[in-house]
Amino acid sequence: MAARLQIKYFNSFWLKRALNGRFDSSGNENTAIPSTAGTGIEASGYKPTWPGDPNYVGSDYPSFGADVYTGTGSRDRNWIVEESRIRGGYNNTSTSYGARAYLKEDENSQSRLDNQLIYSGVYNSTTSFNATNVFSIAENITKTLDPAYGSIQRLYAEDTNMIIFQENKVNNVLVDKDAIYSAQGGGTVTSANLVLGQITPYLGEYGISKNPESFAVFGFRKYFADRYRNVILRLSRDGITEISQYGMSDYFRDNLEQISDDWQNYTSSYSITAFSNVAPYSITLSEVADDLDIGMQVAIQQSGSSTVVNAIVVGVNKKLLYLDIGPKLPDLTQEVVLTKFVKDRIVGGYDTYDDFYKLSMQKSLLNKDIPEVFLPFDQSTVVEEVSYNGNTQTLAFDESIKGWTSFYTYRPIFINNLRNNYYSFKASEVWRHHDEVNENRTTFYGNQSDSSITFIFNANPSVTKNFKTIAYEGSNGWEVDFVKSDFQGKDNVNGWIETQDTAGYESSLNLSTVKSYEEGKYIDGGVTYRSGFNRKENRYVANLINNSTQRIGEVVFGEQMSGVKGYYVTVRMSIDTTTDPGGMKELFAVSSNFSVSSY
Fold first, then answer.
1. Angle at 334 between CA 332 and CA 336, to 5 degrees
2. Considering only CA atoms, which of 240, 259, 3 is closest in space to residue 109?
3. Which of 85, 106, 239, 481 fits as disulfide partner to 511, beta carbons 3.0 to 4.6 Å?
4. Nearest to 404 by CA among 535, 272, 293, 255
């Protein structure tokens, strides 16, 4: 059924004597005198209010021309008069209401068309012409995409065209021009009065899923994630390319399938020290709210109360939380319960400093006490070393070598670049990376992390070897966390048993196999010794001491022998905590001396 909505308007002349004085009938100044819109009377300096305002009382005012002050002395009257005739003269021209505006809809229920585009009139700042609120149904102002490819997630304007990212498709649309084809199939581009012209899909059934935050652009290359297909993509002049295929297809397959589109909620309690229930609404917490980010939706509830107020976080400054809400906050006292609504994210951005595409796959942190753990090696190898939560996986793609080169330990909300600087955002703060002034490397958002590199010694893959030593060329301050061989199995009465050789590996988190040059130094009898790396001919070398448990049928094992047996070994090296913390540590080459097994 059709609905008709009348739009209210006010078309009046106000005649005003700008004199001081605002008094009630007793001669006392009244700072809370209400408006009398509709009666022709209003006190000077008081902002007009209209019927429906809680302070509006129209019957408390005398008629026009009466003096509101009846005491001794004389005080000036000060009124605002509503007049419908020009100059207020007798029988003068009356101002008409003008055109009445109505909105008529045959279908007044809301509809969501997430695969369509609609554009308004133009905006010209030079001539102050603004038609952005004009949507004329007399013109063809909509463009519909194939609904089979899902909703539109992102628009990117490039030169004179625009790229449209749907969940399952990427399209290119002409702007202010159209393509005309001849009978022979040839095409030409011509100007037209269309705002959006021909839509041309890119080859390949790829999209941006529901992760538009993964989009990044540099030069003529665009990068984004397609979680539905477990791939990371690059859109360039040669079309769409799967850059996740560069040695990392299994990794992204396993991690992208863990990202969910579902919203989750988690309730946490905070003690508060102060709050403001007037704009700008704010709550001062007794502890830092690191688990709350800008744009996050929260539900506020006083402990023990059933009143819930929905709000959006618009600012987080350590312990001060700014909120954008509709109604006022409830009267908060000692403790407040915040329910945050979060979902998994895939954050992308381009680092112009290192010339890397940075990608951060983030699981929702439901509990503020869950640490943001990241381990830059295979999960299956560290189940005994660290409690692995898998919350964040941040890594970089290097276009020059067509490979994924580095993993990082930070969890950004948003990342981007500006004038050769790389920035990330965390808890309403902006952080600049690659700071060469402070030289506080491996520090993200005020937290120090250790840099590490994991690699494999795999010379002569088909030959069993005994890796006896490890050496490296580079800076002082590197240590070996672990050395582990491949798994080897043997039949047993209890079934198949797998074992592996290790050097210095401890399940009790004591991962330092070979200590650094400085941390391994000790003095015995006035003589300095090194229990870890020693420097010889400007190379740091160390022996590998086996600490494996006895295998079935093994006679010599553990500390009775040196070296690690296996077809290959996995090694992880990291910087220590005492040698020039935050300084530069270089690692040029790592090698191992091994002997071929005699059996």
1. 60
2. 3
3. 481
4. 255
